Every structure is written in structure tokens, then in C-alpha cells.
Amino acid sequence: MRYQTVRKVFLKRRKSAIDLSKQASYNLEKNFIGRFDRLLGVRRFVSTWLLFWLLLAMVTVWQLASLSGYFQTIQPVPGGIYNEGILGTLTNVNPIYATSEVDTSLSHLIFAGLLRYNSQDQLVDCLASSWSVDSAGTVYTVKLKPGLTWQDGKPLTAADVVFTFDTIQNADADSPLYSSWQGISIKAVNSTTVQFTLPNPLASFPYNLTVGIIPKHILGNIPPSDLRAANFNTLSPIGAGPFMWHGIAVSGNTPQNASERIALIPFSDYVLGKPKLSEFIVDAYASQSQLVDAFTAGQLTAVTGIDSVPLQISKMSGVEIHSLILTAGVYVFFKTQNNILSDQAIRKALVLGSDPNIIIDRLGYDTIPVNEPLLVGQLAYNHRYAQVTDQPVQADNLLTKDGWVMAKNGWRYKNHQALVFNLVTTDTPENQLVVGILQKQWRAIGVNLEPIFESPVTYQATLQDHNYDSTLEGISIGTDPDVFVYWDSSQYDPRSSGLNLSEYDNPTVDSALEQGRTRLNPALRVIKYQPFLEAWQQDAPALGLYQPRVIYITKSTVYGLTGKQINSPADRFNGVENWEIVTEGVTDPSKP
């Protein structure tokens, strides 16, 4: 009985389990498998919404990026390491000695003068807060800005200024600036005031105050005769300029592959404000090939010291080539004491028979013609006294009238003497171009020009000894019209060097140059210089050609590099404290 009851319960539960299983299968079939087609619709519905939200997010991001570009502009910001490559070697950065391009560049960065040139090539204050001259034009008083310091933290005072120029005046110091400072008395009125007393008025004197000041507390105990060889000049210079000496590394085991890396860091207390660059590195290379290879390899920010733009650099994208025109003039100087060129008629014929415009067109860069001993636009320049050129017929007639007969071979002779002379200059592509054009132009009027191209070292000796018939050379004129050193008869001596390369001797010119430089009134100076310009035009001691340039190549934009005309290659650094090379997006507050 008990058994049957258990079996009956078991069968009942089994039937219930089977019924439940059938019910689950039915519900699964009806509510899940039977609705697969609806799930596909749901998937499409969900996918559509997901795609919509994805597109909406992408549009939002794009719009925000666009608005960011609208509200922001790319602007330069402080920072960055500036690497400048330059051709040459370091010898002496002391500003009373620096003459080479490497030395003057570093000197300009490390030291500061009482006055400086701004980016518009105007003379403005630097260490000085003001300067004045008395009514006689002989006493200049310069006041220093308060709180000046050297890069080692020591105070810079009037005593340092006096020490600098007293050292230049000392013959034992052997400074190339020696002759420019003779006869001038310098004294410190107090710690911030210096007085310069000149033997005679000199209108151009303020331009001499751009010389870098050197520290008395470091150099004052060194005998002047030992100063040129002091470690200060090459290993540990301390100035008051925008950048401080940080260190030097030398590489290369031969003169041909030698290079020097000089690292400079910003001087926080620079009188014109701390530079915006975080570091300035000067890489000096002994050869142009090293210099060009370093630039094309991306190792340099800028390069200078070369005469023309190498082909491999000109092909690079993003490169900017700056032609910085110098306030200088390239001339052919005729040595007027030479047997042939002492003849005024020959010199005038050479001027008439030349065409400087063809030379300028072939240079490959825009520049300004030079047709007087003063530059176009300079005080006292007068277009009436410009040299007359491109007149070969007049040149022919003048030579014929002077007794020079054209022979069958195309050369002119006079009393069996050929009209021939040499022209000596530095061996550069630009000089070869210029001389080649002149040689062709003068050959057309029967003149035989014999070019001689020399290395820079050899040519400097030639120039110093005046060992030439004529020479192609550039002279620095500057912004002031005082060109006394180039044309006054006192500025040449056959026994020593002199900057009167033409050995020009004219009493009228000497008088006009003296009077022009000793008058402070600009209008009066213009009047006094006129006899000089007129005589120079008639005597033709030289042929003016063009204002030369400095090539400065940068791999991209250097913000703050704005100079178009400078007085010397190192003046490219006018305003260097404001140079910037790093850019980033900056919000523009002017946009709503």
C-alpha cells in the first residue's frame, strides 16, 4: 500500500515536470525564437542611434577645434635654443680688440656700449640714460642709467667707462681703436657721469660711444701690454650685454676641420630687458663646407659669414634669406700716385666707360647704387655730384684726346706705353663677377685690366702696403657723412698703412672734410661738404659701385629680426633681446 502511494506521487510529479518542460519550450519558441526578426529591427534601431551620437560627437569636436582656431592665433613666445653658424675662428671677443666676424659677433652679444643702434639703424641710448654736448661742441657729458651691473653682479660705474677708453688710448694695449681716441680727455664726474673733452669739435663723435665697455674690477690690474693675451678675451669674458658667457668646446684635429661651440645664456639684468631666447649658441667653423653641411643637417637655426647662398641651402623649404644692406660702399680705388692712374683723364674715362647698373643687375640681390663718396640719402649727399657712367663714346673721345691711340690689337698706347694696370682684390665669387664685368667694359674702350685675386690673408697685407694699381674693396661709411679717413691726404703714407686707398691728395678736399666734420649744425655741414663732393666728381679717385650686403639665412622665421640696413655685420644683433623662435596658440582677447 505504501509502495503504491509513493509510485503514484512519483508519476504525478513526473507528469508535472513534463508539462512544465513543454510549457517552457512553448514559451521559448513563442517569446524568443519567434521574435528574432523583431530583434534585427531593434539592432538596426540601436545602431542608428549609436551612429547618430558618434557623428554628433565628431561634429562637436570639429566645431570646438574650429572655434579654438578662431579664438586663438599662432604667436611667438619666449624660449628656445638659437644656434647660429658662422665662418671663422674665435680669437678675441674683447670689444677693444675684436675685428673678425666671429669676434665682433660674440662681442656684440656679450658686451654693451654707452650708445647703440636700434633696428632702424638709429643711434639710441644703451648703458647711457642721456648725453649732451656744450655750445663749443668739444665737451660731451654722458649720464649712466641707475643700477647697472656686470654679468658677475658687480656694479658698473663711470670708473669702468673711463678705464675702457683710457685703455684704448694706451699704445701698450695695442687696440685697433687707438688712433680714433687720441687727444680726447675722459674723466668721471661722479659714479654715474662721464665727461669727454675733445681737442676740436667732431660731429661724428657720439658714434664712437657704441664701443663695448669692459670691467675695471677684472682687467684693471693687468698690464696694458699683457691685456691682448688675457684669458678674459677667450675663456671668461664678462660684459653687460644681453648674453653671458657659459662655456666653449673645441673639436677637430686639423685647421681644416676645426670648429668651436660657444654657449651663451641670457643676462637677467640686461639694461634693455632679459633676452627672450633661453640660450644662444655660436658655432664657428673653419670651412664653408662644414658650415653648410651643419645647416642642411638641421643643426643650426641660422648661418652667416658666406658670400653667396649655396645651392643646397637654396633648395631647402622654409628657409628665409635676409639680405642686410650695409651702410658701406664697394668702390674701385684708383691709386692716384701710380704712373698710369695719376692721369685724371684716364680715371674719368674709366668711370665713363663703366656701367655699374649691369653689375648690380647681375649680383642676384637688391641693393643701392653708390655714385659718390657719400651714400644715397645720407646727410650732405647731392645727386648733382653723382658720377656719370655708361658713356663709352665719351670715354673713347677722352682717351683719344689725351693721346691714347687704339692699336689693331684693341689696346690703347701712348708713346709706346700700353694702357694697362692691375686690380687686386679678395678671391670671392662676387668679386670675380664684378671684376669680370669691369674687365669687359674697359676692354671695349681699349683699356687692359689685369685682375689679381688673393686669399683674405694675402690681400690684407697687400691692402696695408698699398701694393696695387687699383683695388676693389668695400669701406664702412656708417650713418654719419664723416668720411675723413678715406679721402683726406693725411690718411695715407707710403711707409705705413692708411685708409685713403686711392692716396688721394687735394687741398680743397682736405679743407672741406675738416670743416664738414667740425660743424654740429646739419644744415651747415651740408654746405661745407659740397666742395668735397664737387672735387671728387671731377678728380675721379675711385669708381663707386654699390652698397654690399650681409647674407643671413634662417631655417624659419625669427621674430624680432627686423633690420634692413645695418652698419656692420655684427649689427644684425640690434634688438637681439627681442628675438623669438618658438610659437604656440594664444587666445586672442579681441575676438568675442
Question: How would you describe this protein?
Answer:
This protein is an alpha+beta fold and 592 residues long. It has 4 domains: 1-31; 33-77; 81-322 and 552-560 and 570-584, Periplasmic binding protein-like II (D-Maltodextrin-Binding Protein, domain 2, 3-Layer(aba) Sandwich); 328-546, Roll (Dipeptide-binding Protein, domain 3). The protein contains 16 helices and 24 strands. An 8-stranded mixed β-sheet has the order 9-10-11-2-12-22-13-23, with helices on both faces. Strands 19-18-20-14-21 form a 5-stranded mixed β-sheet. A hairpin with a 2-residue loop joins β7 and β8 (193-197). It is globular and about 110 Å long.
Topology at a glance:
Layout: H1 2-31, H2 36-71, E1 72-77, E2 81-87, H3 101-110, E3 115-117, E4 123-125, E5 128-133, E6 139-144, H4 158-169, E7 185-190, E8 193-197, H5 216-219, H6 224-227, E9 243-251, E10 259-266, E11 279-285, H7 288-296, E12 302-304, H8 311-314, E13 320-326, E14 328-334, H9 344-352, H10 356-363, H11 392-401, E15 405-406, E16 412-414, E17 417-418, E18 420-426, H12 429-443, E19 448-454, H13 456-465, E20 470-476, H14 484-487, H15 507-517, H16 522-539, E21 542-546, E22 549-554, E23 565-566, E24 582-587
Parallel strand pairs: 2-11, 2-12, 13-23, 18-19, 18-20
Antiparallel strand pairs: 1-24, 3-4, 5-6, 6-8, 7-8, 9-10, 10-11, 12-22, 13-22, 14-20, 14-21, 15-16, 16-17
Helix pairs in contact: 9-11, 10-12, 15-16
